[in-house]
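Structure first, sequence second, as always.
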């Protein structure tokens, strides 16, 4: 499937490629980014492995998050488990350099992705999941208008050996008109 470029007022989500590696290296080595992720990136080799995995995952659409005013890569996000038959997808593996947290960049990225999911692909459901300790992410997901669905206990083993409980949320096609009106500036 062709990955589209999605453009908003402040950011552009462009298809992630190997050519983004130098720009990723400029922003990816902050432990705060990876703390709640299932795979941690601490070295250039880790980042290359992360990038290769993002590009090879079936039913995945990875994007680089570009700050348009500086034409600068500041993060990444992707669709996971895109299922066009059942019309579902998960938005995840999202990270933005901490300098851009609480700036509305993530909200804009989610609006672009949700608009593509519901208005272009005509999906029925978009899911989100996060680490049970990532309260900032849970707050942001709820602020989008996503509904809490439940928690998968002992869902994953983290790189440090601790257990992650995954907290799940979703937005359905029935929710989308209200969510879209709340997110649209």
């Amino acid at each position: 499937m062709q990955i589209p470029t999605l453009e908003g007022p402040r950011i552009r989500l462009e298809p992630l490629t190997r050519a983004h590696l130098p720009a990723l290296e400029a922003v990816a080595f902050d432990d705060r980014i990876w703390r709640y992720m299932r795979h941690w990136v601490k070295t250039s080799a880790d980042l290359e492995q992360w990038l290769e995995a993002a590009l090879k995952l079936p039913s995945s659409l990875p994007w680089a998050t570009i700050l348009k005013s500086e034409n600068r890569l500041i993060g990444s996000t992707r669709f996971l488990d895109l299922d066009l038959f059942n019309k579902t997808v998960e938005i995840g593996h999202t990270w933005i350099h901490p300098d851009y947290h609480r700036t509305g960049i993530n909200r804009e990225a989610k609006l672009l992705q949700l608009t593509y999911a519901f208005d272009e692909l005509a999906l029925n459901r978009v899911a989100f999941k996060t680490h049970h300790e990532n309260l900032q992410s849970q707050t942001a997901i709820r602020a989008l208008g996503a509904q809490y669905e439940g928690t998968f206990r002992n869902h994953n083993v983290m790189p440090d050996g601790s257990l992650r409980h995954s907290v799940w949320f979703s937005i359905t096609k029935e929710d989308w008109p209200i969510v879209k009106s709340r997110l649209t500036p």
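Margin note: The chain has a mean pLDDT of 96.
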